[in-house]
Amino acid sequence: MENKTMLFNAVLIVMLCFLFGCTSVTVDQVKHHQSELHLGDSIVVIGRRTGSDYETEADLISCIGSALSQTNEALNVIPENDFVDKLYPWFEARTAPIHVRDLNRLLSYDKISQIIDDYQVQYIVWVDGNTERTRSSGSISCGLSPTGGACFGFGTWDTKSEYEATIWDYKSRQLVGKVSSVADGTSYMPAIVIPIPIIAPVQRHACKTMANQLSEFFTIN
Amino acid sequence: MRSHSERLVMKIKLFLVTFLLSLLLTSCKSTVDISGHFPSPVIDQLPYSIGVIFNKEFSDYRYIEKGEKRKKWEISVGDAQVEMLNVVLKAMFLKMEVTPDFQNTSGNTLDLFFQPNLENFQYNVPYETKGNMFEVWLKYNMKVYDSQGQIIADWVLTAYGKTPSEFFQTQEEALNDAMVIALRDLGAGLSLKFTQVPEINKWLKMQEKSNKSSTELVQNNFVNRMVLGI
Questions:
Q1: B229 in a structural domain
Q2: Distance of residue B181 Cα from the nearest chain A Cα, in angstroms
Q3: Does the pLDDT value for residue A3 go beyond 80?
Q4: Beta carbons within 10 angstroms of residue B207's beta carbon
Q5: Which of A2, A45, A219, B95 is the right S-S partner for B49, CB 3.0 to 4.6 Å?
Q6: Where are the domains of chain A?
Q7: B21 falls within a domain
Q8: Enclosing domain of residue B76
């Protein structure tokens, strides 16, 4: 009886370990200038959407924004949608400034500089990249009959998240630095009667590590 | 205890229900009524009034997929494009009103009339794209007329929107998002490039000139009256 309980517990532990697929994350950072934040200053995190064959996901940007706020309560992060809507149409995919020097051209327009000043923006963080499935294998077949349905098989796939954040100092109009986050993970889907997805939260890990790194990037005074 | 025939009838019934259910699921078509939030653009307003003519084809625009190899989509774009243009044109002009034709409804003289026309609508779903995305292309023909209904400018404006397919998002929601992005792109193109259309730019310069001379005329009249002591 004791042996059976031990075996059950061991199986349970192994199953819990595999409930989320494996993920590995690599973070890198380059800092060109000091990045200080004073009380009342804000940061805005915006997705760069100029890639022709990929799109920086809106939910990743909002994930980084909220994770960044959680890492440090003193950080005031402006939601991407609020900022982009308020400054429409100057931060759309085809109209957003590409280089930091383009900010000068944009801010020569008083209405725009007034709105950004009202937000008390100190840093603009541009996030570029995406999450994609890189490999998949295995097969699952499902059958349906009057008595019921069942699936059998095994599927696995690899996912890769690759993001780079470029930080602009709005006030000094210079590139402050870059933070990159690359996450890899493998997900599994065994199917014995019912399919059991064991998903690797690759994008979520990339978001969390990016937010933590960005939080360390700024010195709050 | 049920008889063998009763069990057989029950099995057949169950099979038919399952068959019909699966048939229903595979034959479903996707219907999307595009809706979204369209913010007012931050731009300099032109000191003119404009009448906007949304013809029925434009305001009721509905795309019905007829391709045999594609899923059956029915996409209603009309309401969303009218809503977006209402917001953008109100910000672009001092006064904007929707008119049925080249006649103003308020009794005031309108400086310009604007008539948009959606000429081409195209979309791609993830299995048709390299990057697993929903994509939308829009091609509009824009026409601007003067207060007498004489055409001033006729130009093509294109818009593009894309959105990645997400795990807990339906195809309809994703296509709606791509469409809203495309309409925002259209609003950006219209509001930022309107004065750069050569014929419109020429008309604006002419108006500025005539306004300037009429202001000078008014000023001269005022000076004349002052001098003459009228």
A1: no
A2: 9
A3: no
A4: 15
A5: B95
A6: 23-131+161-182+201-220
A7: no
A8: 35-224
Q: In the predicted model, is pLDDT for residue B219 greater than 60? A: no
State whether A111 and B42 contact (CB < 8 Å): yes
**Helix, strand or coil for residue B105?**
coil
Residue B2 included in any domain: no
Is residue B214 predicted with pLDDT exceeding 80? no
A143 touches chain B (CB under 8 A): no
> What is the count of structural domains for chain B?
1
Q: What is the CATH number of the domain that holds B149?
A: 3.40.50.10610
Domain A23-131+161-182+201-220 bears CATH identifier 3.90.550: no
**Residue A92: which pLDDT band, with cuts at 50, 70 and 90?**
very high
Q: Contact B185/A53, CB-based, under 8 Å?
A: no
Question: What is the bridge-based pairing of β-strands B30-33 and B73-76?
Answer: parallel
- Asked whether the predicted pLDDT for residue A8 surpasses 80, the reply is no
Give the pTM.
Answer: 0.83
Out of A26-30, B27-31, B122-126, B154-158, least confident range:
B27-31
Contact assignment for A146 to B192 by CB distance below 8 Å:
no
A54 touches chain B (CB under 8 A): yes
The torsion angle over the Cα atoms of residues B205, B209, B215 and B217, rounded to 10 degrees, is -160
Looking at residue A40, what is its pLDDT? 86
CB contact under 8 A, A88 and B132: no
Alpha helices of chain A — where are they, by DSSP H?
A: 2-19, 58-71, 80-86, 102-107, 110-119, 202-217
Say whether A92 and B184 touch across the interface (CB within 8 A). Answer: yes
Residues of chain B found within 8 Å of residue A132, distances taken between Cβ atoms: 131-132
* B217 within a domain of the structure (yes/no): yes
Q: Is the ipTM of this complex over 0.90?
A: no
The pLDDT of residue B182 = 97
